[in-house]
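4.2 Preliminary Data

To establish feasibility before requesting continued support, the project team ran the inverse folding procedure on a target of 148 residues. The structure was first converted into the token representation described in Section 3, and no sequence information of any kind was made available to the design step. The complete token record follows.
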């Protein structure tokens, strides 16, 4: 004995299909919202107004020819070796967690001589984005790098 395919069967199939689609979308939206805690810029319109100036600053910083080598020591402190700026250069850094799950950490450095610096405080283990800023006289050089 065969059963007839009725409108109730079709309604059940459609409700089950769209119920699965909605459930998957809700789960994925929940995961997307709970795993990204950061903001790229506070106001994208204002950031767009400064974009060309940022490009010009980047080109002038690149023209300086400065460079930095960063090493994470076993005690959690950062060792930075600068090449290019003079002995009067000042170094500052901010480490931020890529997903915004930990608060930003401002790092101060002690000068060791010959362009070498050592952070005063340790940075907790993990993945960090570090923004270095070197100031020497009226010139400023910036770089952002990932630490693991």
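Position-by-position output of the design step:
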């Amino acid at each position: 004995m065969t059963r007839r395919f009725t409108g109730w069967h079709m309604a059940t199939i459609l409700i089950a299909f769209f119920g699965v689609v909605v459930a998957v979308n809700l789960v994925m939206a929940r995961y997307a919202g709970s795993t990204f805690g950061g903001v790229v810029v506070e106001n994208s319109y204002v950031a767009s107004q400064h974009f060309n100036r940022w490009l010009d600053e980047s080109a002038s910083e690149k023209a300086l020819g400065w460079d930095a080598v960063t090493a994470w020591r076993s005690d959690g402190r950062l060792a930075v070796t600068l090449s290019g700026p003079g002995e009067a250069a000042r170094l500052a850094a901010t480490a931020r967690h890529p997903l915004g799950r930990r608060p930003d950490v401002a790092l101060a450095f002690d000068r060791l001589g010959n362009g070498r610096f050592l952070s005063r405080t340790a940075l907790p283990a993990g993945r960090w984005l570090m923004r270095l800023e070197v100031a020497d006289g009226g010139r400023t050089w910036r770089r952002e790098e990932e630490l693991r």
